[in-house]
Amino acid sequence: MTDTADFLTATRTFYDTIAEDYADHFRGRHVDKPLERAVLGAYAELVGPGGLVADLGCGPGVVTAHLAELGLSVSGLDLSESMLTIARRDHPGLRFEQGSMLDLPLAGDSLAGVVSWYSSIHTPVGELPSLFAELHRVLVPGGHLLLAFQVGDVPRHLAEPWGHPVALDFHRRRPEHMVELLSDAGFRLHSSTVREPDEALAESVPQAFLLARKQG
Fold first, then answer.
1. Strands, E assignment, 69-170
2. In angstroms, what is the C-alpha Rg of the chain?
3. How far is CA 209 from the centre of its chain?
4. Which of 20, 75, 195, 203 is the most buried (most CB within 10 A)?
5. What is the rounded distance in angstroms from the CA atom of residue 134 to the CA atom of residue 143?
6. Which residues contact 176 (CB under 8 A, 6 or more apart)?
7. Which helix or strand (DSSP H or E) is residue 193 part of?
8. How far apart are the first and last CA of the chain?
9. What is the pTM of this model?
């Protein structure tokens, strides 16, 4: 089995196992903070109405639904069928499909926007150039990417969440390194936003939000 298949399988198994507990714990929390709402709102304005947007690694579909409320024509994609079951149940008016961000079931130049909201955090650093190349491929020239992730150098290894017998690495990144990789893939940075940890949410590291545009 290849390294890529290994981490994809580990990620799928992890989220299939914890899906209901994850959805209950994080329900609405991705869009209940002012800065996050502002970033998502700015992204929606940049993309504009009418263009197709994919929320990649959508999980239970909370951000997908929020983007739809902001007027975007958005669908969700996730590795985990258990997560997708919840997304379809909670947001029956939206489309959710199973798939990998590294091999999108989409034609080139087909999307006005791509969102990766804390969904690249399980991708090993060596796979990031391939990931960003794939996101670049499916965006139209001038299309917008929104990338959210935790800031840092040391991964967090999470074992037995909610008592389930699974474990997964959560990779933290440096914004300047991510910007460099995005530039190498053909993106131009629009904005970089970093906020400090929210102690009320038991966050231990800053959170980063990058907006970038496909050149060409």
1. 73-78, 96-98, 111-117, 139-150, 156-159, 167-170
2. 16
3. 11
4. 75
5. 13
6. none
7. strand 187-195
8. 37
9. 0.93
With tokens 């545009």, the residue in question is 213
Per-residue pLDDT reduced to its tens digit, 21-34: 999 888 766 677 89
Q: Mean pLDDT over residues 63-67, rounded?
A: 96
Angle at 160 between CA 156 and CA 163, to 5 degrees: 145
Strand partners, 189: 212
Q: Within the chain, where are the H helices?
A: 3-26, 34-47, 62-69, 81-90, 128-138, 175-184
Contact call for residues 158 and 170 (beta carbons, < 8 A): yes
Among 62, 67, 34, residue whose Cα is nearest residue 51 = 67
pLDDT tens digits for 110-155? 999 999 999 999 999 999 999 999 999 999 999 999 999 999 999 9
- DSSP secondary structure letter of residue 212: E
- Please give the DSSP secondary-structure letter assigned to residue 151: B
